[in-house]
Amino acid sequence: MNPLFQRTELLLGQEAMESLASKHVIIFGVGGVGSWCAESLVRSGIRHLTVVDSDCVAESNVNRQLMATTSTLGQPKVEVLRKRLLDINPEATVMAMQKTYSAETANDFPLNSYDYVIDAIDSVKDKALLILQACQSDARLFSSMGAALKLDTTKIKIAEFWKVQGDPLARALRKRFKSQLNFPAKKFQCVFSSEQRKNAMQASDGIRANGTVMHITAMFGLTLASLVIRDAIEKEKMKK
Questions:
Q1: In the prediction, which pLDDT does 170 show?
Q2: CATH number of the domain to which 160 belongs
Q3: Cβ distance 192 to 146 under 8 Å?
Q4: Beta carbons of 226 and 116 less than 8 angstroms apart
Q5: Which of 90, 36, 84, 30 is nearest to 54 (CA)?
Q6: Per residue in 125-150, is it b (16+ CB within 10 Å) or e — as a string?
Q7: CB 53 within 8 A of CB 29
Q8: Which residues pair with 191 in a beta bridge?
Q9: Counting beta carbons within 10 angstroms of the beta carbon of residue 195, is it exposed (0 to 12), middle (13 to 18) or buried (19 or more)?
Q10: What is the pTM of this model?
Q11: Cβ-count burial of 217 within 10 angstroms (0-12 exposed, 13-18 middle, 19+ buried)?
Q12: Domain limits at 201?
């Protein structure tokens, strides 16, 4: 029993821990949602993780993103996160890719080589493309819908994409798929909240942005991690 994961193994058992250690997971977008998902996965025994994000840490990230501190400002998010994850488990394999998933870069990501794809992308265009591509791959996809303009963690839910209700991002994605007559090849689970709030004020710098808080974005990320962990455990049970 690895002392780093003793408490987890007591709950899940040795076979489940071996299964988790063998899984390959890729996370697209390691901001307020994806960063917490990554940490939860590594702390739960996932040893093969790829994190993808093109951005560097900014002051506006500090209120909600795991690796965003005043000492990491200006550094690539994926590199800061990779360093932290390896500090948690030095035996893990963490690949950091400072890229954006898009039509131009999609071929850089061999999705069939992963067991799980985590979608925490904000851009509707790029998010829709990832969903379509991931659903055509052998990987299991889990997707985050919009985590901004929320305060109540009790309203966070899990549902199959076409059954997500009250989420503007899911609505925009469905509209895009229908207008292009191009639909995901299989069903996939989403984390979402139907809570709808408005910004209390406008950003002083004139940037169009929606307010977000850490306890919501982190809960979205942790819920995504739980979907991976529970799915891997269930698949291990089915082998018996």
A1: 97
A2: 3.40.50.720
A3: yes
A4: no
A5: 30
A6: ebbbbbbbbbbebebbbbbbbbbbbb
A7: yes
A8: 144, 158
A9: middle
A10: 0.96
A11: buried
A12: 13-238
Q: What is the DSSP string of 28-48?
A: E--STTHHHHHHHHHHTT--E
Nearest to 32 by CA among 238, 236, 237, 224: 224
What is residue 204's predicted lDDT score, i.e. its pLDDT? Answer: 67
Tell me the mean pLDDT per 10 residues along the chain, length 240.
91 95 98 98 98 97 97 98 98 97 97 98 97 98 97 98 97 97 98 94 75 97 98 86
Alpha carbon distance 174, 125 (integer Å): 12
In angstroms, the CA 52 to CA 174 distance is 24
pLDDT for the residue 237: 81
Using DSSP, state whether 112 is helix, strand or coil: helix
DSSP bridge pairs for 143: 119, 190
Instruction: Judge whether 153 lies within some domain.
Output: yes
In a domain, 7, yes or no: no
Which pLDDT score, from 0 to 100, does residue 229 have?
97
Measured in whole angstroms, the distance separating CA 140 from the mean position of its chain's CA atoms is 13
**Residues composing the chain:** 240
pLDDT score of 209: 84
Give phi and psi for 35, each to the nearest 5. -65, -40
Q: Which two tokens stand for residue 115?
A: 């067991």
Number of domains present in the structure of the chain: 1
What pLDDT score does 201 carry? 84
Phi, psi of 44 (to 5 degrees): -95, -5
Is residue 168 assigned to a domain?
Answer: yes
Check if the beta carbon of residue 149 is closer than 8 Å to that of residue 196. yes
- The verdict on residue 134 lying in a domain is yes
Task: Give the bridge partners for 51, in sequence order.
Answer: 27, 96
